[in-house]
Design goal:
Layout: H1 4-42, H2 47-78, H3 92-122, H4 127-151, H5 160-200, H6 205-235, H7 243-278, H8 288-297, H9 300-315
Helix pairs in contact: 1-2, 1-7, 2-3, 2-7, 3-4, 3-5, 3-7, 4-5, 5-6, 5-9, 6-7, 6-9
């Protein structure tokens, strides 16, 4: 028979987090639908657009799978299966916990890949950016693989808890470092682009769109980095009271964050396309000779600012 305190603790650590995650999943669903509609409206004309759509779909499937695993785990806990005698084999409850932990890592890895991919495009596909980003993402992936093997007791069967703590710490540390790395690259490009525009006294909409897109990417990177730091603190006991709620909402918040960034980027691109339609260029500016003359007359900084704008178009 459960006492009042134990029943309250059971509700606080199991039932309320499931309800919270369900609410966040509804929000995630709505934002995902908006992002898909905007992507379709903007047009799926490049490989990058299909990549964004695929990542959105994978994150949404992962979020649904995590919530179902959470519901199943809560049902097992309420049935008091966790009080069964411990054996060397995985119980259903332990298996569900392992599934929940490993599923949420998928969204973290996808977030790392997409933010480093954007930074690589913004830096005009520089090799050194690609190599450093690849090393960081590979570290996160290796940590996730080790975490899966540990949770299934395929390695370190007698020190599962300690090994899982170490692997999860490595995963989160690597993911935070990756986000900070990519955000720093985009922050520098934002500052550089703004300096170029001020030097050239340019007020063209294409350049302002590039600056707005860079600002969105930098802000989203900072938010994601802070979210990962909070998740790490809760995962290792520093925010113990809120740990069940943070763990339950981490996957959904990661997906919502991604979908909102897609909505903002698509909205900005649609606004820019509407501007181009309302102010078409003159016929003279469309001739190859006039374009070459205009480019030759511009200072070197203009070419760099124009390259930044073209990189933004690849992202949005």
């Amino acid at each position: 028979m459960l006492t009042t305190d134990s029943a309250r603790a059971l509700v606080d650590t199991n039932i309320f987090p499931v309800i919270l995650e369900a609410g966040l999943l509804v929000i995630f669903s709505l934002v995902t639908v908006c992002s898909v509609v905007l992507l379709h409206k903007k047009g799926l004309s490049t490989r990058a657009h299909y990549t964004v759509l695929s990542v959105s779909g994978i994150m949404f499937v992962v979020a649904i799978a995590h919530w179902f695993a959470h519901v199943a785990l809560t049902s097992r806990v309420l049935d008091k299966v966790h009080k069964a005698p411990r054996s060397q084999h995985l119980t259903t409850t332990e298996m569900l916990r392992a599934v929940m932990v490993n599923i949420q890592i998928i969204n973290f890895i996808l977030t790392d890949l997409i933010i480093t991919w954007r930074a690589w495009l913004i830096w005009d596909r520089e090799n050194w950016v690609f190599i450093v980003s690849l090393c960081l993402c590979t570290t996160t992936f290796i940590g996730a693989l080790v975490d899966v093997l540990v949770s299934l007791r395929l390695i370190f069967p007698r020190s599962t808890v300690e090994a899982m703590v170490a692997s999860q710490f490595a995963i989160l540390s690597s993911s935070i470092t990756t986000n900070l790395w990519a955000t720093s690259l985009m922050t520098y490009k934002t500052w550089q682009h703004r300096v170029l525009l001020q030097a050239l006294l340019i007020e063209d909409k294409s350049c302002s769109m590039a600056e707005k897109v860079l600002s969105i990417l930098v802000e989203s990177g900072v938010i994601m980095s802070w979210a990962l730091v909070v998740f790490m603190l809760s995962n290792f006991g520093w925010l113990f009271a809120a740990s069940p709620y943070i763990s339950a909402s981490a996957v959904q918040i990661c997906g919502i964050h991604w979908a909102i960034v897609v909505v903002f980027l698509c909205t900005e691109r649609l606004r820019y396309d509407a501007y181009l339609v309302s102010k078409p260029p003159s016929l003279a500016s469309l001739t190859p000779g006039s374009r070459r003359r205009r480019k030759a007359e511009q200072p070197p900084e203009f070419e760099e600012a124009e390259a930044n704008s073209e990189a933004m178009e690849q992202i949005v």
